[in-house]
Amino acid sequence: MRVTLVYPPYGSGRRARYFPFGLAYVASSLVKGGHEVSVVDMEGSNLSMDSAVAAVAAGRPDVIGLGGMVTRFRFAKELGRRLREAVPDAFLMAGNSGATTLPETYLRSCSLDAVVLGEGERTALELVDAVESGAEWRGIPGVAFLSDAGSLAFSPQREPVENLDLLPRPAWDLFPIESYIHSYDHRGRLTRHMEVVASRGCPYECVYCYRIYGRRVRRRSPESIVSEIEELVARYRIRYTGFPDDLFTSDRSFVLEVCRLIRERLPGLKWSCLGRVNTVDAAMLSEMKRSGCYWISYGIESGSPAMLEAMNRKVTPEQCLEALKLTRKAGIHAEGSFMIGMYGETRETIEETIAFCARADITAPMLFVTPYPGTRIFERARAEGRIPDLESFLSEMNSAGALLVNLTDMTDEELKALRRHAQARIGLNYLMRRPLTRIPVLILKHLLLEGPVGLLRDLAAVLKSGGGRSTSGT
Ligand code: B12
Ligand code: SF4
């Protein structure tokens, strides 16, 4: 079958940053299954809606698959509707976290035949096979659809892939790969940078987080991970990699084995990962450093014990401080992600976060807490009537940094003013600790990553909102 997978953009004109691994994994499974797969990547190829629709239609696909997380809903919706008209006979499906958590909304708004729920490789392949043979597809595990009566229906649940090593590697070659190979590492140094997904799943239950892969952590073998990096090095001359996994650092022996293999087989490679503060220790960090790790981003989120409790983080500010200290001691650059505006947030809890950042000697953009679909705070906010119009809420989600739903008892103006205040204080405390090195480095790094236009644009945005770029941590 001819299958076209489409990656909707995050916002028009934004530069491609992160490779769409989900879509690329689905693509490679379909290729392995014998299908003819093409990709129309609106973000990587910087395509307008008109050109994307024309490109899909020109390929006369039998099946079309839409990807992209919930922040791309606005574009997925327009795409789905336009593709339904342009290629009326094609089977139209979508996957990823947005479609999985809000299947009915996606099915109706994007004019879909089916939503692939959760892990997509096997479900998508079985669906395409069934469409090809004309077999009944509604019983294939892991699918949501609208019944003949028009109501939401689900097939049986799909079991997770037990052995991730058996999945074919992401189909990098179907994407405009150079758009995703970053020229700079996390510290602004010249390199070639591409990430690798090493595991799936997370056992924690932070209330603002949606875990598409469930609670059980499944890891690829260190051998499979390192040979994928070797392939990236050979094919694309990668010199820097990273692991965007939910919990890369959670299993000591796994991390140590990955480090050992990297050290033996990829000397000179540099890498980064996301970390959880209660899963690292001095010896492990030192091994990570020896094998080339030089940047870890921790999900810290708040410096207030009460807020960490409200988020169900299961860590304390002291544990966060300790992890940052140990990471730096090992010679690895440590960063953190923070958010503001959780249920119960007050001026006092924000002051605690400002004080925490000063103690930790850390700075980071503070994003407003957003109740993403599939999370506990989304359910609560919906039940409280704080999201009266779901579609317009989803459509506004493509601006990380905006206050979409205020979960606190403060007014929007108070909360925004406090965020500006916190951002300014945190940034200033950090810069003034070592002004002669930090101020020029900050400007240079931003210039390298974003270019002169980006620097001016972001400077204007920071001045306007006190905001920053989004990061992701666990
Ligand atoms: C890396 C990452 C990022 C990267 C970029 C990812 C990207 N390519 O756009 C960065 C750091 C930029 C990022 C930013 C954000 N992220 Co993020 N991110 C992740 C992370 C850690 C991994 C994503 C990934 O690559 N997974 C690996 C691949 C293989 O899995 P996958 O994408 O889910 O794909 C599988 C299925 O979804 C499905 N599938 C996917 N696409 C398709 C398409 C078809 C046709 C089919 C059939 C199936 C299918 O099959 C795939 C294979 O099994 C996830 C957490 C996670 N573990 O998934 C969060 C996650 C996706 N992010 C999330 C959020 C909220 C954000 C932000 C909004 C945070 C913020 N406030 O700024 C921003 C939005 C940025 C944007 N541009 O849209 C949420 C989404 C929640 C939700 N309900 O939708 C997640 C789930 C984190 C969380 N635990 O809450 N993120
Ligand atoms: S924020 Fe991180 S630790 Fe918490 S549930 Fe999500 S992935 Fe797990």
Report on the structure:
With 474 residues, this protein is an alpha/beta fold. It contains 16 helices and 16 strands. It has helices at residues 21-32, 49-58, 73-86, 97-101, 103-109, 121-133, 222-236, 252-265, 282-290, 305-310, 317-329, 347-360, 376-383, 390-395, 412-433, 435-465, and strands at residues 2-7, 36-41, 63-66, 91-94, 114-116, 143-146, 152-154, 182-184, 190-193, 199-200, 218-219, 240-243, 270-275, 293-301, 333-340, 366-368. The two termini are 39 Å apart. It binds cobalamin and iron/sulfur cluster. Residues 5, 10, 17-18, 20-23, 25-26, 65-67, 69-72, 93-98, 101, 116, 119-121, 124, 197, 209-213, 244, 246, 367, 370, 372-374, 400, 470, 472 line the site of cobalamin.
What is the secondary structure topology, with strand pairs?
Elements: E1 2-7, H1 21-32, E2 36-41, H2 49-58, E3 63-66, H3 73-86, E4 91-94, H4 97-101, H5 103-109, E5 114-116, H6 121-133, E6 143-146, E7 152-154, E8 182-184, E9 190-193, E10 199-200, E11 218-219, H7 222-236, E12 240-243, H8 252-265, E13 270-275, H9 282-290, E14 293-301, H10 305-310, H11 317-329, E15 333-340, H12 347-360, E16 366-368, H13 376-383, H14 390-395, H15 412-433, H16 435-465
Parallel strand pairs: 1-2, 1-3, 3-4, 4-5, 12-13, 13-14, 14-15, 15-16
Antiparallel strand pairs: 5-6, 6-7, 8-9, 10-11
Helix pairs in contact: 1-6, 2-3, 7-8, 8-9, 12-15, 15-16
The structure holds cobalamin (B12) and iron/sulfur cluster (SF4).
